[in-house]
């Protein structure tokens, strides 16, 4: 699953480099909104009350508001949604994890003409709900809120002074608990981004 996420990130980056026009931005507008969508790839399976669950890939979507405090530093507030499914190794049912992340992310940027690579680190609150089916433990059928961290890297490609395309890879750490058992939602997200500066 991790190899799939990394490969998708690289393919999107190469594709965007190929289509990015040569726009050199002397001065960015200081605010932006960005829409993100892509793949969520959990890193861990888990065990719950004697059952082993295989955690499958899912999807992620996010909208974020950002502000440049200087050309090389920005803060971003994000809200989104991601989900994935986990099924018991011995067929007994399925669990769908539905997560609403609320995040604050610091970005260190390295503008090079029309290309803007960056690294990022942040914190978030993860509101996690489940849908269970079959004979899956009912302890999973609840909503939990947990704090977590994330770190990643990405690159933006400026189409105009106010519009950019991008690709972002991120790893998140979050560990909600159901029925006394911690379940890691740790995993990779890879997104394609569309942003508007103003």
Compile the SSE list and pairings.
Blueprint: H1 2-19, E1 31-42, E2 46-48, E3 51-55, E4 58-70, E5 73-88, E6 93-109, E7 115-134, E8 144-158, E9 163-173, E10 177-178, E11 181-182, E12 187-197
Antiparallel strand pairs: 1-4, 1-12, 2-3, 3-5, 4-5, 5-6, 6-7, 7-8, 8-9, 9-12, 10-11
Task: Explain the overall architecture.
- The chain is mostly beta strands and 198 residues long.
- The protein has one domain (2-156, 184-197): Porin (Beta Barrel).
- Helix content is 9%, strand content 64%.
- The chain contains one helix and twelve strands, in the order H-E-E-E-E-E-E-E-E-E-E-E-E.
- An eight-stranded antiparallel β-barrel has the order 1-4-5-6-7-8-9-12.
- Strand 5 and strand 6 (93-109) form a beta hairpin.
- The model is unreliable at 19-26 (pLDDT under 50).
- Which percent band covers the strand fraction? over 45%
| Average predicted local confidence, pLDDT | 83
- Tell me about the largest β-sheet: 8 strands, antiparallel, barrel
How many helices in DSSP terms? 1
| Uncertain segments | 19-26
Provide tags for this entry.
198 residues; mainly beta; Porin; 8-stranded antiparallel beta barrel; 12 strands; elongated
